[in-house]
């Protein structure tokens, strides 16, 4: 037990002197690194603009309020597009993520040395790149529109669904697999009768959760031209029409809240 | 197994094959309605997706060039832009995570129902809800409009987003603690601060450190995105590269992002294992 001595009486302390100094040194290094990083980051910052920010914010609020509610009429079609991007994108993601997950799971992969690393690489690549960046690439390749948004959402969803699903597959109860195998079932029947029933609730939960995230993400995909309500947001921002931007923000917020509520309800019902 | 399904509870007639009960919705007509509605929605949704197939076909050639760019990424010809972008992104990530975590601790403590009084709890929960419900990119748009272009706006965006994330998880952690230890501290006559420091902090600190590492990871990923709306970082470099149709440079940036994210993920999971 580490102790320090005060007037020759041992007193309990949490760490030894050496540990204490190591902790101090670690914190000092973190603080120094942060300050250094901050200085490097703000090298080119124009502080006049920063000082001016409260006034700018006031000005912004002034122009953003009251919201131009008449603009709402032109938002229903983009909103419908946004929902479709999220839903169809999630379905696309599921379609690709399911086989990838089975290839990535240690207990179902056909080859540990070959198929599994490739599947894991697909999952990591998909997860590291945000859907907005996927959309940026796809808009450049296949042109602006809903299709780019759907594919972008789908590509980003592969990693998320794939990762959580393959972890679920690895955690199944193996005795059920053994039992089905003992009846002489084929490989596909083992998956159908022993593995799928065990992971189905998790799978449904993951999918609905991802759908909920995708609604949020598809709302801003239009900023790079991939369809949905973000296109409207982009044009309102370009015209500095802040009263329209307010309406769009309110619509996005309402959609997000509703989708979160739906997703929580559905997940509650499944699990 | 089939006993749980209504309709199968009656003893099955001899010679009939066993049928697996439906998995999701037990009531037959409801299942039909839900599935039918879903198919109808799908048909409707797909029919409204207008695709310009000639444009897509035209794009395939560009897509192929992009794939080639991935095979031969160009790190050198725009190396100053790439280095500048990554320096901005990495510094932004670190400073915003540190600032966000520091600010989220008092808010997280205030948002834990078991140690905070109701008015404080309500205010802190409101802050968390506001910070969480808006996406980083939307916050970035507002901050860029207020503070001007550049990484400072990005720093503020990520800090703001970090506060909501960390404070919510910290508050839930504090609400889940083993009350016995806090109770023991109170029994020694400890003040509120002492209970917090000796009864609660040791229980939540390991997870707080783990979550901070995780948030560092997220902030880096987000820093690659908010550059698209002008908040500095590697996203700006990527956006410019795409605008110039320099797919090999864009591929180099993407490969570096993937590499850094992977490195961050491995090192943070290693560190989390060591701490917990």
Automatic annotation (TrEMBL), chain A:
- Enumerate the SUPFAM superfamilies for this protein: MetI-like
Q: Which InterPro entries does the UniProt record give?
A: MetI-like, MetI-like_sf, PhnE/PtxC
Compartments in which it is found: Cell membrane
Q: Where primarily located?
A: membrane
GO cellular component annotations, sorted alphabetically? plasma membrane
Recorded topology in the membrane: Multi-pass membrane protein
Listed GO MF terms: ABC-type phosphonate transporter activity
What domain of life?
Bacteria
| Gene3D superfamilies in the cross-refs | MetI-like (1.10.3720.10)
Q: Which UniProt keywords apply?
A: Cell membrane, Membrane, Transmembrane, Transmembrane helix, Transport
Q: Pfam families, from UniProt? A: BPD_transp_1
Transmembrane segments in this chain: where? 21-41, 85-105, 112-129, 135-155, 218-235, 241-262
Location of the ABC transmembrane type-1 domain: 79-263
The family this protein is said to belong to: Belongs to the binding-protein-dependent transport system permease family.
According to UniProt, the name of this protein is Phosphonate ABC transporter, permease protein PhnE
TrEMBL record, chain B:
Pfam families recorded: BPD_transp_1 (PF00528)
CDD domains the record matches = TM_PBP2 (cd06261)
* This protein's GO CC annotations: plasma membrane
Q: What are the entry keywords? A: Cell membrane, Membrane, Transmembrane, Transmembrane helix, Transport
Domain ABC transmembrane type-1 residues, every copy: 86-268
InterPro entries for this protein: MetI-like, MetI-like_sf, PhnE/PtxC
Please state where this protein is localized: Cell membrane
Membrane topology per the entry is:
Multi-pass membrane protein
Which parts pass through the membrane?
29-49, 137-161, 247-266
Q: Could you say which protein family the record assigns here?
A: Belongs to the binding-protein-dependent transport system permease family.
Q: Can you say what this protein is called?
A: Phosphonate ABC transporter, permease protein PhnE
Please name the source species.
Salinarimonas ramus
């Amino acid at each position: 037990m580490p102790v320090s001595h005060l007037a020759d009486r041992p007193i309990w302390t949490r760490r030894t002197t050496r540990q204490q100094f190591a902790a101090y040194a670690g914190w000092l290094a973190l603080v120094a690194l942060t300050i250094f990083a901050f200085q490097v980051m703000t090298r080119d910052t124009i502080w006049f603009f920063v000082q001016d920010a409260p006034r700018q914010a006031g000005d912004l609020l002034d122009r953003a309020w009251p919201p131009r509610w008449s603009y709402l009429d032109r938002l229903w079609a983009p909103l419908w597009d946004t929902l479709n991007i999220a839903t169809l994108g999630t379905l696309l993601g599921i379609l690709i993520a399911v086989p990838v997950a089975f290839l990535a799971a240690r207990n179902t992969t056909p080859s540990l040395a070959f198929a599994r690393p490739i599947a894991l690489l697909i999952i990591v690549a998909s997860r590291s790149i945000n859907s907005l960046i996927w959309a940026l690439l796809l808009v450049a390749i296949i042109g602006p529109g809903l299709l780019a948004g759907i594919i972008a959402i789908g590509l980003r969803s592969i990693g998320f669904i794939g990762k959580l699903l393959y972890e679920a597959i690895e955690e199944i109860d193996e005795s059920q697999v053994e039992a089905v195998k003992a009846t002489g079932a084929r490989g596909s029947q083992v998956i159908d009768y022993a593995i799928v029933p065990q992971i189905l609730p998790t799978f449904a939960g993951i999918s609905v959760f991802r759908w909920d995230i995708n609604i949020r993400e598809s709302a801003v995909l239009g900023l790079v031209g991939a369809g949905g309500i973000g296109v409207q947001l982009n044009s309102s921002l370009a015209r500095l029409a802040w009263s329209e931007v307010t309406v769009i923000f309110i619509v996005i917020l309402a959609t997000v809240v509703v989708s979160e509520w739906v997703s929580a309800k559905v997940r509650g019902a499944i699990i | 197994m089939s006993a749980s399904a209504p309709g199968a509870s009656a003893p099955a007639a001899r010679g009939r094959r066993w049928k697996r009960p439906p998995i999701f919705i037990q009531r037959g007509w409801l299942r039909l309605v839900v599935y039918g509605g879903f198919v109808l929605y799908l048909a409707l949704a797909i029919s409204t997706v207008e695709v310009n197939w000639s444009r897509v076909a035209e794009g395939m050639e560009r897509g192929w060039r992009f794939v080639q760019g991935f095979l031969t990424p160009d790190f050198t010809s725009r190396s100053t832009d790439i280095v500048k972008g990554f320096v901005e992104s990495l510094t932004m990530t670190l400073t915003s995570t540190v600032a966000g975590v520091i600010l989220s601790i008092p808010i997280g403590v205030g948002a834990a129902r078991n140690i905070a009084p109701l008015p404080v709890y309500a205010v802190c929960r409101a802050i968390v809800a506001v910070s969480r419900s808006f996406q980083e990119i939307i916050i970035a748009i507002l901050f860029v409009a207020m503070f001007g272009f550049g990484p400072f706006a990005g720093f503020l965006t990520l800090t703001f987003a970090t506060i909501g994330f960390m404070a919510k998880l910290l508050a839930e952690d504090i609400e889940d603690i083993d009350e016995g230890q806090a109770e023991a501290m109170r029994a020694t006559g400890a003040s509120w601060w002492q209970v917090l420091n000796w009864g609660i902090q040791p229980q939540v600190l390991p997870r707080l450190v783990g979550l901070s590492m995780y948030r560092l990871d997220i902030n880096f990923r987000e820093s690659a995105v908010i550059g698209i709306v002008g908040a500095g970082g590697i996203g700006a470099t990527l956006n410019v590269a795409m605008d110039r149709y320099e797919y090999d440079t864009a591929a180099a940036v993407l490969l570096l992002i993937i590499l850094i994210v992977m490195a961050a993920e491995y090192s943070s999971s290693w560190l989390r294992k060591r701490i917990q």
